[in-house]
Amino acid sequence: MTKTLRGLLGLLGFLLVWELFSRSGTVPQQYFPPPSTVLLRLAELLGDRNFLLDVIASVLAWAIALGIAIAIAVPAGLLLGSVRSIRVATRAIIEFLRPIPSVALIPLAIVLVGAGPETKISLAVYAAVWPILFNTIYALDEIDPVMVDTARSFGLGRGRVMFTVALPNAAPFVLTGIRMSAAVALILVVSTEFLAGGSSGLGNFVLDASSGAGRMDLVLAGTLVAGIIGYLINEALELLHKRGLRWSTVDREAA
After folding, report:
1. Which of 7, 18, 125, 229 ranks highest by number of CB atoms within 10 Å?
2. Signal sequence: where (predicted)?
3. Is the residue at 192 inside a domain?
4. Domain that holds residue 185
5. SS (H, E, C) the chain
6. CB–CB of 201/190 below 8 Å?
7. Burial class (CB within 10 angstroms; exposed 0-12, middle 13-18, buried 19+) of 67
8. What is the rounded CA–CA span in Å between residue 61 and residue 189?
9. Residue 44 and residue 46: Cα distance in Å, rounded?
10. The CA-based dihedral angle spanning residues 19, 20, 23, 24, taken in that order and rounded to the nearest 10 degrees
11. What is the pLDDT of residue 87?
């Protein structure tokens, strides 16, 4: 049985259990509609221009946030992983900032950058930086010192060793960190749209659908779209990992 077939069977089993539970009467269907209803609403939403604009707004914010996080975390990780004195000097502040929940910073972000798209992008960047940063640092720690010493014995300077030895060996770890951060960034974008409000985005759509009459079918349809987007992003990055880093033998726990 192929991996795809097993996945489809698992998905069908989940939907069947959901359908049976929803129709059992344990919970009123208006609060927990069956997947047949939710999927019908989802099909209708895919033809709704306003909903598609909300999806585009969330995906665009996610892409910007992840790009900024990569641009910050990879160079910072290379610096902290290769210069021990800087790593020791910054360890306390990094360990202080890392556990702070990004959603707890929503009021501060609104004050500093306003209530527009900048808020969700800023918070998503903050949350997405850490997995990439620590995976990059870990990757440099795992480099075989013999490889570095050999490169230096051939007269290569610190910069060339970094680009010809460190970066190729760190690439699988960095890409794994990016995969983790991609999911985190999407979660933060949608969560911030929901909690902080706004004029567009999947989170704002879910917020509007849950207020007033409380259309749970629309809420779950919007949630499914967020899950599908996250799944497609992860599959795309996994494919990039397999095709772009075929030589890698790293055991990726996030796979």
Report:
1. 125
2. none
3. yes
4. 36-244
5. CCHHHHHHHHHHHHHHHHHHHHHCCCCCCCCCCCHHHHHHHHHHHCCCHHHHHHHHHHHHHHHHHHHHHHHHHHHHHHHHHHCHHHHHHHHHHHHHHCCCCHHHHHHHHHHHHCCCHHHHHHHHHHHHHHHHHHHHHHHHHCCCHHHHHHHHHCCCCHHHHHHHHHHHHHHHHHHHHHHHHHHHHHHHHHHHHHHHCCCCCHHHHHHHHHCCCCCHHHHHHHHHHHHHHHHHHHHHHHHHHHHHCCCCCCCCCCC
6. yes
7. middle
8. 7
9. 5
10. -160
11. 86
At 119-161, the pLDDT tens digits run 999 999 999 999 999 999 988 887 777 777 677 776 776 666 7
**Closest Cα to residue 129, out of 181, 172, 82?**
181
Residues constituting the chain: 255
* Tokens 């795992």, residue located: 142
Amino acid, res. 43: A
- Where residue 126 sits, what CATH number does that domain have? 1.10.3720.10
The single residue listed with the structure tokens 């726990």 is 253
How many domains, the chain?
1
Q: Would residue 75 count as lying in a domain?
A: yes
118 neighbors 57 (Cβ within 8 angstroms): no
Confirm whether 252 is domain-assigned: no
Give dist(CA 249, CA 25) in Å, integer: 50
Instruction: Decide if 9 is inside a domain.
Output: no
Contact 151, 95 (CB under 8 A): no
In sign, the C-alpha dihedral spanning 30, 33, 37, 43 is positive
**CA 209, CA 245: separation in Å to the nearest integer?**
43
Q: Which of 112, 97, 119, 253 is nearest to 188 (CA)?
A: 119
